[in-house]
Fold each of these.
Amino acid sequence: MRYSAAAPVTPDSAMRSAIPPKCEGNACMAASDKRTHVYLPETLPELLQLYRRKPLASIYAGGTDLLRGVTKAEFALPTEVISLQEIEELHRISRTERYLEIGAAATVARILQIGSNILPPAFYAALHSIGPPGLFSLATLGGNICSVDHVYSIAPLLSIMDVRYEVRRQGHTRWVPASRFRDANGAPALAEGEILTRIRLPLEHWNVQVFRQLGTIHLESTSPLIFCALGKTTKAVLDDFRLTFCGSSPILYRNRELEAELVGRKLPLPAREIDAFLHGVSQGIERTEMPLTPLQLHRATGLTRVLLARMGQPDSID
């Protein structure tokens, strides 16, 4: 593929270029002009070596975040782009009795093919919420997780599911809990030259699983909210409970101390305990100055109230 002033880049041509020609070596330049160089590493070691040398290059998997909001017939690509299309390891999905391991460049469509009988119900719902079905074959799990400006549908849920991320750079690998993947400002905590390569998802049973997305996350005018909760109950006792939500900002709300206060409580929860929990949520948001609009806060506390009132029932929030 080749970009030039005579052949301007359009959203369609950029999408077509996601299936690039073959090339030799990690230094191969698939396309170039005075504005953009697209590199096509074919193995993970080639990618890590290339990204060490070019840490400011943009990583291109499905391109949905890169093209989001593009309305003109022509648009500017970053100066240097590294495509993940040819790296088989990043598209791989494997399953054991305890985990699903998903390559960061696996598309939503491929993950959904695993089936709703295997995927956790909340995760299955979160995958479907990423956009219209036409995006499923383009959008990748890693792209959803690593978005800088917003937290999209899947990342908040993974942060409460004991999911771990494999992060690699040349000569080094580390596993990071999803709950610690973002810094205090909500940005992915990746060092220079590091890239998310694999997601390990526990196939743990939660008999309460809730995922809700209200509004459109990158349109503040819709007062968007992503709301996720997990719970385990045994014989009318709450054994474990986790809750997180966010609005347009990439900063997630979670309060483990409040969650711990509910663990061991008999169900159904009395109204005074629900009120106390919601009071703690509101205080925590006010104390941390979490950027939520009044409507977003109203939505979050309303969903939480309904969930806690119905806790232990088969359909906790439907």
Note: The chain has three domains: 11-86, 89-202, 208-309.
Amino acid sequence: MKTPKFWYSKNSIISILLRPISFLWVLGSVLRKKKSYNFNNIKIIKVGNVVAGGSGKTPTVISIVKKLANSKYQVHIISRGYKGSIKKSTLVNTDIHSYKEVGDESIILSKIAPTWIGNNRIESIKNAQKMGAKIVVLDDGIQDASIKGDLNLLVFNGLQGLGNGKIIPAGPLREKLSDSIKKCHLSIIIDEDINNIANKLNNLLPIIKAKINIESEYLNNFKNKNVVAFCGLGFPEKFFKTIKEIGCNIRYKKSFPDHYQYKEKDLKELIDIAIKYNSLLITTEKDHIKILKKYRNRIYYFPITVDFINDKIINDKLYSLTINK
């Protein structure tokens, strides 16, 4: 679904009316809470968010895994495979799996390290361990109390902020901010903190500042070009902001619901618009995966990672994790 606009409005009547349902959401979370499963001989890093959609946890996972690449330990990634049809624990194989089976984000993650999907994260961690993994990085999972993390990272996007500060469905929060803070060891704020997230953390978590990174070869391809931009993200504004920052002139933009599956009709319309404006058609890597093959060479994308500005904190934490195995 598209992110509701009232999630980012302080005095929305809709939000006020939905607050009783938010209470039920919280109650359901408490009732679903399970005893933590403790693993032996494997370290667990959980990367998650408190805001539903769009914080940047998946590119953060990629950057963390790349930092661990130089360690002598095998690293695997654990994902739920959101919106994929496969529900049992499965190792992603792009030769036989499509995004429809394992989810769009899992396809991207599997290019970086062995990636497991499935509803049961504990089973996936056990399977990764059987295949030699000594460290697993969970894409999401801060709210999953059944797994104890050795290093839990809470990711925010500075542009997105915390919205109206209310819990789903009245607002974008998956739980109270204070509850997420208690579960985590570090916070990461991507891009300029224009919503004063740091103040709301109230010195309860160390803060790592970060920014989106795009490789120079992609920057040179799109700088000063006219583009028609589209995406299906939880918070599309950050993609359009990135497009502007790399020097693109956006002639037209369109957002679709998060994890949207593009139909041929959508793609034909977008291509016609790009022709009308004499512009390149550009989207995210996650969206490009879901483009019908016959249209992929007409639509551009660029991979993104996260650069940690004050990375000594995260480097020290990761090093401590590896030497204490």
Note: The CA atoms of residues 11 and 241 lie 26 Å apart.
Amino acid sequence: MRTIWLFPGQGSQRPGMLAGLPAADRQLVTQVTGVELDDRDYRDSVKNQLAITILQMAQVDQLKKAGWMPTAVAGHSLGVFAAAYAANVISKADVLAVVKRRAQLMQAAYDPAEYGMGVILGLTRREVEDLVAQVDGPTTPVCASNQNAPTQVTVSGKKTAIKAVLELAQQQGATKAKLLNVPVLSHTPLLAGVAEQLATTLHKYELHAPQALYLANYNGHLVHELDPLAYDLSHNLAYPVYWDTMMDVATELDLQVAIELCPGTVLSKLLSSKCHKIKRISLAQYGIDDGLYLLDKWQK
């Protein structure tokens, strides 16, 4: 059965989400990174990114132990790392080391109290870009970033500038315009320097050609070779996530089931809205046991 595994990024984390995490995985995080996950407060980006990533990799292990392998993988922002792990590109320990470095670089680059992200629903990307152009400037940097759906666009930059864009969006008839619950700035050219530093870090680790189709954030398309995949891992934080394009491509892959790993539930819905014939399983909703039950049932 042809499946796509979807890996959300930051924003849907919640206290208690690591309740079922195997003790060995929690210990591995501490062993590799020196960070102890407490599963209570996710305001710290390092703990947040490590917690989401280890949770997703543990679920990948459970799916594979049950005999499943993805036909395709797609990660949203931070989710690219667990997606690469699922495609057998990089080891679990190396993912943790790289993700810790990524989070530290992002956290140090811009004050999270002053920089962040917002989301606008109900306007096209062109409309959002026109609003951004009215606000963006040397002291008020802001850009249109992730394209999650045709009329769902995020904006990244200085919070005062984001709020100004959100206000303009509401005046123009947006159905929703709000700041996002992410502890760091992401998906903006402001992080180009961080991306280069992360690429240097990534080169220290052994990477392998993907054993599943990989949909890249930075251009929205399938990549078949290791070099563009590695570029996506290191540089996606300096580009918009072209999720809407990624899902358009996914609908052409003759997929039967979309499995969304924790802690999110939105990505599989976005794909299903494009292709109703693709069944979906959100592990945050069903849990791993019921998720495996449904996979076995649908395979028969």
Note: The beta strands are 3-7, 72-75, 115-121, 142-149, 152-158, 176-179, 213-215, 222-223, 257-260, 279-282.
Amino acid sequence: MRIAVFGGTGFVGYQLVKFLLKKEFELSLLVRPASKNNVDFEGEVKIVSGSVDSEKAIKETIKDSDFVIYNIGILEESPKEGATFEELQYQSAKRIIDISRARSIKKFILMSANGIDKNCTKYQKTKLAAETHLINSGLTYTIFRPSVIFGDPHGRMEFATQLFNEMIKTPIPAVNFISSLSPKLNSVKLSPVHIEDVIEAFFVALKSEATNNQLYALGGPDALTWGRIIELLMSATNKKKIMIPVPTIIMKITTLLFSWLKILPVSYDQIVMLEQGNTADPKTLTELIGRELKNFNPETLKYLNN
């Protein structure tokens, strides 16, 4: 069985590829020339050098494949580099879905994101548009909508590591985002889900027909407030920081007025989505992979000390 993977060098994709190789799947990866240094499994997989705007490269990656996994997504846009939500999260996904349909791919697995039904931000709109196109394509599919994913990043960008670097290691107080003007009404919550649990969900989707034409919201076992997440990061790394409650409305105004400043840790769209919350029922993922999920706690966050 051969799987074509688009987005196989980032945090999730890299570990997904490693896992699938251990399960003895044959893999084809489309890798941008700029990402070649992130590939340490050459010789084990078929590497196609190119980009997702090249139909030729896409067709060569999909050639002889039974399954396609689309795992490309960004949190912030870099228009000068062609990295926009519209291009990477919708147009490229659409292009690959259409070619997959023409090639009679058995199943298309799409990595989406939790909370996109709100359909407010460009991030959400493009993720939702890709889902809609896949559902209407006629292809057999599985769609995953994870909350924030954590785990050993192996040198890549990851939720807990990024928070640790931007809020715990810095000399300034940590920010506790709250969704109202009163800290007592804090409703900003997330369901951090471990990378190993997410990868196992992909494996189940590849093996089980019961996942055909299904959409799964993937969340970890705990719905945690932003403040509690910061506390757990401090506990895992034996750090102590003052936390200052900051209403999301203030951050929304700040990011709108000073979006040009590269030092801001979040964008306007990210604050909007954070305000909406990002939780998912853990029962869905527990039943899908058939075991208990990994908690977001000092034990599972030990990699932050490396």
Note: The two ends are 36 Å apart (CA to CA).
